[in-house]
Amino acid sequence: MIDKLSQRDKRFLMAGAIAVTAYVLIQFVIQPFMASQARINGTIESKIQFIKKYYEILNQKSYYDAKSGSNQVFAAQLNDRFLDETQAGLAAASLQKILEQLAKQANVNIDRARIEKTKPLGGLLAVPVEITIVSNLKNLSDLLHRIENHKKFLVVENLVARRVNKTGEESLKTSLLVLGFIRDMDPKDVKNT
Predict the structure, then answer these.
(1) pLDDT exceeds 50 at position 189
(2) Distances from the Cα of 143 to the Cαs of 80, 85, 135, 152, 155, in angstroms?
(3) Per-residue pLDDT for 192 more than 60?
(4) Distance, CA of 176 to CA of 37 (rounded, Å)
(5) How do strand 109-115 and strand 119-121 relate by DSSP bridges?
(6) Mean pLDDT, residues 169-179
(7) Taking the model in full, what pTM does it have?
(8) How far apart are CA 29 and CA 132, in angstroms?
(9) 169 falls in which pLDDT band (50, 70, 90)?
(10) 3-class DSSP state of 112
(11) 79 CB-side CA count, 13 A
(12) 3-class DSSP state of 163
């Protein structure tokens, strides 16, 4: 039957067979192969990126070691800012002693000292001590400066001052409520206050 076809028909038939074969090869062999090759290339590229990031992190190890060291130093400095005692009663006594020393350095007389009820403030336990002093304005400001700049973290929460004598030398009677802080709250201390 192919022998009966003309030379021209044989060429068209041959061209059609070549076109169909080329289409089948492209559609079912070359395109799937290219798609799988693209997936493999994408996987390889993502693994290369992962390895690059991994080595970047490894190369920054010295930075993170230095950062860790500075964080430890900062944590130690922060621990020094809190009162050393872990129980509220002992911490209040320690704060009262600190205030007495500061008052002595500022030439201020303490008339009365009273330990107030402790209160939790944002994960810390505030230990308040109220002191009543008699001084002049200069010595009072010196005492406040010493309290604010003490190595322990102390806060003057309340200050009430009034003049004692109307004539003569200036004399103030001042009530200060000073807070010291304990870092780790003990549940027993919170319940007992």
Answers:
(1) no
(2) 21, 24, 10, 15, 12
(3) no
(4) 78
(5) unpaired
(6) 88
(7) 0.61
(8) 95
(9) confident
(10) strand
(11) 10
(12) strand
